[in-house]
Amino acid sequence: MSFNHTDKVAFITGSGAGIGRSTAQRLAAEGASIVVADLDVDGAAETVRLIEADGGTAMAVACNVCDRATIAAARDAALERFGRIDYLVNNAGIVTMHSLDELSEEDWDRVVDVNLKGPFLVTQELNEAIAAGGGGAIVNLSTVEASVVVSSQGFCQVHYNASKGGIPNLTKALAVELGRKKIRVNCVAPGPIATDFVSIDEITSDEAMDFMSQRLVIPRVGQPADIAAAISFLLSDEASWITGVQLPVDGGWLTR
Ligand SMILES: NC(=O)c1ccc[n+]([C@@H]2O[C@H](COP(=O)([O-])OP(=O)(O)OC[C@H]3O[C@@H](n4cnc5c(N)ncnc54)[C@H](O)[C@@H]3O)[C@@H](O)[C@H]2O)c1
Question: Is 160 a known active-site residue?
């Protein structure tokens, strides 16, 4: 199944790797022009290269989701090149691994800034541009860990859990506020996905697979394309009466 994104422009944060890159590639293949916004300019350039090699259209912009000036500059560059922005995917996210007692204020601030303040800042800077084109859609990246606490490496990551726990309610609040601008806002909650976010050895180790097999109804690690498919649907007109929801894409993790 594919969705029609012809003539749409999608601004995707953190699309220089992982889930963001896969989403960029999928939306481009479905007709959208992509703004690949990332702190990692080499990763962003590689995503653009992959899209163009497949016949798609994309541009790379340097953007730190914690820095309003870089967000505004990236938005302006996108508008200059494409003339409009229809979709925003607030995908950029980070985690650091610490027990509560080892978690510094600096790591708390960094993780909460990127994962929770970032989507606020980017949405604040881009929503007028989306509204100016007649409205559109936003998808935020949450996680199953917004709802349950998964202890990786023996620790909970209280800063990550707290930052991502804010995403479903930020999504609802934005959906209500931006509804009058004809902008739908939803979030996707991935289960464990094979990217560089956490080491692949860590999530495919015997211990991790044993842990996951007790929770996953569909017993495999997820792929970035699993998440890209859900994001494409939520952005598309096929989801035109869906706003304010969290869609788990997690192999059934949250059902047990
Ligand atoms: N991989 C998983 O298992 C998993 C599970 C649940 C949720 N998620 C969420 O999905 C999203 C994407 O994760 P991923 O696995 O693709 O991660 P990833 O590490 O593979 O890619 C993240 C990208 O975000 C970029 N980035 C980081 N900080 C940034 C900043 N301040 N400004 C702009 N870009 C920045 C990085 O350069 C990188 O290109 C994250 O929000 C993550 O929390 C991932």
Answer: yes
